[in-house]
């Protein structure tokens, strides 16, 4: 074998001083191959090196081409395992515990990325997650100006120790499908919080769109400047994450309790990063305050309450640790042992670490307090803060992933195209709110292009945006409702499905913790459409027709197999608004009559338009008897 030093980190291969046979990172222990489809296996070796691949009774032979690349294709196999994969050149690679089953791509932004360890009832969910035939591969975050061939990540077998890092939506989907069918299920989680659909779209496909779709990038970077910028961001990103890793591994006291208070700036607490100069910053920030206590309070055991925090915190009082948590948006309440508090001045230091999204203290003023016996000392108001290790210190722009179309497609989708899959799950849209008209085109365009790239008409199922923010007192235009409508429009494409979740969101949290229902509703779609469970109702009521009869509106629905109901047993259906010719909407009274809903209002003599669940956080209660919520709709044609 020739001595070749070939370092192609971008292609995801591991090479030694000698160019031994090597596999991309997508091939590893605990992995899964897609059943019932030809399976490609590829890698690198010396030019002309002879390669043998053995798997599940198949033995294939090939030879590396002049550039050292090789590929073989296994015949389709039924689900089962575990098996071993043996790849032999002048060296031998043996991969163990490989299954054959169904592989689903999980992509989108933070609500797809959201891990099991942060969901509601996380501890009990993780404790019972003994599913050796569920596997997950999490693609490491990366962006690239040009399409890459390889990526980084690891396969794991599902158990209580590993499942905490799985995409929660993906896991609850996989659990339901696996329990119903017995088929092994794998998830390839390739998602990144705070990302818009453009960055997940192949640049070549995007460039075919009309000029108006480039207006969003007028303040971005183009051409050669783009190449240099993205290269610098890739380097800055690695430096930032490495600095954070060193901080976490270090025992250096400066990382755990900085005392140079002169470096701190003043802020009002509670502080959300997105409402301060910390906006668009990832990393570690220190927060600091002090409180004077009387001698009578010192002997008592106290409670320090900081409210919910995004994302990870460590807390000290007078230089002594009193607690910390990595649980997203969990209420922080720490018991203060005797001997820590002192008469007079007491210092409180909080090290907050956020990696993606907004970050910060996201509760209310009344959530911040020190409690001693029955007396509460408010901690709201003026604090000071100081950056520890933050992205801007390395000139890393966390939003760089959105600055040009295709950056995440190139790095986190393109390398997967040779890997056979069953279908795609998608949860994204929050970052495109406000541009729903464009999203109609962008979403369908991306679905069709991904299918073209995979050379298959793959099932593509997505999650509609949840309810979020305040409930409207009066009907009005809603950017979130318009984006949901744009998502629903993609159902016109074949082999698509939508999970409606306007009932599981949280007004104050863009990352609702109820991912169980989200995964379940996606699983119902797949079970019905892909696994032969035609008896399962997979959708809530969707608009079938509307008839205007005098002062009444008669609404008919599809997906009402065993009838309609209100989930709260109310005699009235919430969430309907109607309007006359002036399109001035008012809330209306609605009731279920057999398989229809009759809607009317004393304020509208002759209704001509109707909306349902039209708002950022609509108040609704209409379901089918299978407990699936009705999909929002409107019949008016407001400009978007």
UniProtKB/TrEMBL annotation:
Residues 276-357 form the Beta-galactosidase jelly roll domain. It holds the Pfam family BetaGal_ABD2. It comes from the Bacteria. The keyword Hydrolase applies. Residues 102-209, 408-514 form the Sialate O-acetylesterase domain. Transmembrane segments: none annotated. It comes from Maribacter aquimaris. This is Beta galactosidase jelly roll domain-containing protein. Keywords: Glycosidase, Hydrolase. The keyword Hydrolase applies.
């Amino acid at each position: 074998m020739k001595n070749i030093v070939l370092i192609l980190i971008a292609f995801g291969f591991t090479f030694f001083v000698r160019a031994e046979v090597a596999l991309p990172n997508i091939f590893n222990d605990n992995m899964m191959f897609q059943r019932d489809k030809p399976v490609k296996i590829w890698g690198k070796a010396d030019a002309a090196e002879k390669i043998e691949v053995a798997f599940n009774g198949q033995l294939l032979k090939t030879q590396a081409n002049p550039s050292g690349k090789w590929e073989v294709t296994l015949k389709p196999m039924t689900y089962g395992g575990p098996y071993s994969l043996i790849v032999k050149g002048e060296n031998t690679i043996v991969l163990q515990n490989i299954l054959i089953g169904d592989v689903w791509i999980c992509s989108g932004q933070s609500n797809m990325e959201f891990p099991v360890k942060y969901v509601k009832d996380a501890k009990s969910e993780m404790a019972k997650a003994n599913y050796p035939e569920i596997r997950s591969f999490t693609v490491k975050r990366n962006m690239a100006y040009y399409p890459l061939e390889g990526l980084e990540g690891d396969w794991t077998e599902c158990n209580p120790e590993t499942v905490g890092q799985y995409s929660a939506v993906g896991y609850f989907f996989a659990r339901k499908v696996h329990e119903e069918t017995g088929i092994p299920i794998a998830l390839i989680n390739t998602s990144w919080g705070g990302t818009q659909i453009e960055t997940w779209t192949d640049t070549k496909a995007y460039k075919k769109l009309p000029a108006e779709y480039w207006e969003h990038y007028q303040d971005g970077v183009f051409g050669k400047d783009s190449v240099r910028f993205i290269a610098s961001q890739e380097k800055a990103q690695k430096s930032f994450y490495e600095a954070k890793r060193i901080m976490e591994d270090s025992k250096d006291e400066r990382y755990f309790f900085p005392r140079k208070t002169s470096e701190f700036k003043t802020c009002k607490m509670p502080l959300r990063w997105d409402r301060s100069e910390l906006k668009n910053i990832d990393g570690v920030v220190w927060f600091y305050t002090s409180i004077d206590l009387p001698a009578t309070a010192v002997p008592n055991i106290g409670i320090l309450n900081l409210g919910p925090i995004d994302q990870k915190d460590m807390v000290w009082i007078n230089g002594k640790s009193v607690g910390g948590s990595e649980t997203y948006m969990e209420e922080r309440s720490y018991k203060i042992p005797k001997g820590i508090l002192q008469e007079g001045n007491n210092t409180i230091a909080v090290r907050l670490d956020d990696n993606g999204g907004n970050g910060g203290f996201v509760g209310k003023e009344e959530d911040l307090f020190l409690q001693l016996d029955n007396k509460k000392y408010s901690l709201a108001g003026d604090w000071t803060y100081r950056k520890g290790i933050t992205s801007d210190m390395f000139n890393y722009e966390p939003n760089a992933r959105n600055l040009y179309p295709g950056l995440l497609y190139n790095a986190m989708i393109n390398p997967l195209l040779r890997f056979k899959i069953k279908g795609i799950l998608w949860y994204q849209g929050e970052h495109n709110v406000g541009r729903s008209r464009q999203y109609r085109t962008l979403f369908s365009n991306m679905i069709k292009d991904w299918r073209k790239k995979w050379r298959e008409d793959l099932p593509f199922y997505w999650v509609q945006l949840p309810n979020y923010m305040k409930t409207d007192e009066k009907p009005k235009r809603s950017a979130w409702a318009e984006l949901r409508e744009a998502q629903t429009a993609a159902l016109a494409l074949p082999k698509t499905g939508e999970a409606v979740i306007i009932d599981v969101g949280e007004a104050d949290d863009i990352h609702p913790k109820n991912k169980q229902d989200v995964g379940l509703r996606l699983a119902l779609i797949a079970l019905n459409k892909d696994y032969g469970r035609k008896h399962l109702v997979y959708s809530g009521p969707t608009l079938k027709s509307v008839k205007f009869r005098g002062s009444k509106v008669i609404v008919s629905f599809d997906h009402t197999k065993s009838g309609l109901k209100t989930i709260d047993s109310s005699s009235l259906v919430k969430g309907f608004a109607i309007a006359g010719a002036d399109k001035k909407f008012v809330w209306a009274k609605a009731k279920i009559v057999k398989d229809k809903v009759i809607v009317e209002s004393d304020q509208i003599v002759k209704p001509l338009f109707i909306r349902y669940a039209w708002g950022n956080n609509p108040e609704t209660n209409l379901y089918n008897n299978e407990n699936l919520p009705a999909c929002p709709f409107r019949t008016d044609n407001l400009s978007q």
